[in-house]
Amino acid sequence: xxxxxxxxxxxxxxxxxxxxxxxxxxxxxxxxxxxxxxxxxxxxxxxxxxxxxxxxxxxxxxxxxxxxxxxxxxxxxxxxxxxxxxxxxxxxxxxxxxxxxxxxxxxxxxxxxxxxxxxxxxxxxxxxxxxxxxxxxxxxxxxxxxxxxxxxxxxxxxxxxxxxxxxxxxxxxxxxxxxxxxxxxxxxxxxxxxxxxxxxxxxxxxxxxxxxxxxxxxxxxxxxxxxxxxxxxxxxxxxxxxxxxxxxxxxxxxxxxxxxxxxxxxxxxxxxxxxxxxxxxxxxxxxxxxxxxxxxxxxxxxxxxxxxxxxxxxxxxxxxxxxxxxxxxxxxxxxxxxxxxxxxxxxxxxxxxxxxxxxxxxxxxxxxxxxxxxxxxxxxxxxxxxxxxxxxxxxxxxxxxxxxxxxxxxxxxxx
Amino acid sequence: xxxxxxxxxxxxxxxxxxxxxxxxxxxxxxxxxxxxxxxxxxxxxxxxxxxxxxxxxxxxxxxxxxxxxxxxxxxxxxxxxxxxxxxxxxxxxxxxxxxxxxxxxxxxxxxxxxxxxxxxxxxxxxxxxxxxxxxxxxxxxxxxxxxx
Lengths: 415, 148
Prior knowledge:
heterodimer; A: 415 residues; alpha/beta; Aspartate Aminotransferase, domain 1; Aspartate Aminotransferase, domain 2; 40% helix; B: 148 residues; alpha+beta; 4-stranded mixed beta sheet; 5 helices; 4 strands
């Protein structure tokens, strides 16, 4: 059925990759699991599971706290993970790598530390109409707190940011531009380099929400030129509850801490507290140490697959699935940007996405249904929800075929 | 998990052709319901004859379970008074939430919703209309949500 499409890239063996993921070797509702929900959360390869297990069974103690052997080993593992994340992003220094719970916490950190301290009436934050709630609500909170203005760059019917309109909204009042590198609901790859360039020429800083980008393309924060970059570990086959906020060192240095407690201080008295150095100034409390260890293993794993080969593989699946869905009657693909990551949002006439999700689940096919934490995107397209299939390193052409067969089953049920 | 158990013919029929659908010209009370998790929205309008529901209509966008449940509900409650509706809802709730609940013949066509109990993620789809009806009965103009 895919005769008109390019042959699958030969240097990426997804069948072999599947063997690295024990969770995929199971049956769901009597069918072999077809996991097409990696945009919500990726599964973990054995390498990550084993790294976390090894840490928990051999190394765990609190970090930066003690002189005993385990505490030293745990600190080495944790700080080693920070260095791994620095390399993953090509940041200059580990002082620029703040461990957070995930993208959401990273954005909230910037909103509360940078935004609350620096913004006031007349200042503007610019986001886009395709943002995830995590890149909308923190800025609305800052708007409430500071009286600053929140502007929203529009998108077009293909789900692409209207770049001219965005550039037109930039001015000397713009303090920060916060945009997703890849849209979670639509798959759109945003031309962030262009946006960074334009924002900087207006004197505005740029935060990139990298949640949906990190598993699909090599990230180089210096080449991107962004000032902040936030992502979650579980989107790149690492654990949940761990993520990274990258911030340029001179910016982080000037920003006040946003949470107080242990770890983030140097000295405490009842009269005066002095704060720790970067990046620990922003890491109050005992961190998610095993999560960081797992995240480092996930970065090793992802890079061992070869990000370019992986991207080519995913693009092949995307093209194949897009062509197949376009041939199915009553299916409308929502998000048809020229440049997309391996995400397909769609609706089926006569079958609500929720029903579609249930029917597909009965066939062993796991997709996401709902508003994808992007209600303004749903409003723009005037739909309550979509069904979304997303592809990762372990997906194959057989998974695309299973998706199509399950959709045909839904058509059969709903007529 | 059998799809046919959830999507019975009665459900599919009421989804395709919902009964008592569309805003009425006049009503004594109405309420809006919203399930933010799946985006379902519906409005229920009531006309009373004393304590009884003389007419009920609904409109909204939702999944098959939500639409069919609302359609079946409008047929079931027309002509009943508040006490009878409360009693009916209690029995529906058991049907929707307790797997293998004994079939209750008095539920009539509403019994077609029995498969929902095997799909916990879908219970809210089926109960949204009942919560909305309850809000309308209380003459509340406030929107109700499944996520309060």
